[in-house]
Amino acid sequence: MLIRDAHPTDWPTIWPLVHTVAAAGETYTYPRDLREDQAREMWMQDAPGRTVVAVDPADGALLGSAKMNPNHMGPASHIASASFMVAAEHGGRGVGRALGEHVIEWARAEGYRAIQFNAVVETNTRAVRLWKSLGFSVIGTLPEGYRMPDGSYTGLHIMHLAL
């Protein structure tokens, strides 16, 4: 797979992924009825943030995307954050891991001291397992911080990786 900077011309292939994930309502705190203009503004990062795509070099198919950015402003701007989406049909192929490793390398190169994920849905066990395998730890959980599509509640993990 090839991971490269996302360009404005990539948005038409990124939007269906973001829309599908948001509408499913199982892993992101985005509104389930997220509009395309809202999604584009949130996902397509300007400096000092960055958005990348993972594509299949054989046919250019979108495998996934990640956005990375300072998590906070001012005196806490040395902490990065990131978000990741992998196309369901490409799950289990290492796309999430490759994007995660890419973000960690980026954050180190940019001089961040840590990466903080603010809201990892507790029932998203694949993501939790992946982030832990890359060295992240759960530093807190907001009990019942996330409402699932069926109306039940689950926790939101705050995850941290010191760089």
TrEMBL record:
Transferase as UniProt keyword: yes
Keyword Transferase attached: yes
Pfam family, one: Acetyltransf_1
GO molecular function, one term: acyltransferase activity, transferring groups other than amino-acyl groups
Domain N-acetyltransferase residues, every copy: 1-163
Gene3D superfamilies with a match to the protein in the record: 3.40.630.30
Swiss-Prot/TrEMBL keywords: Transferase
Protein name, per record: GCN5 family acetyltransferase
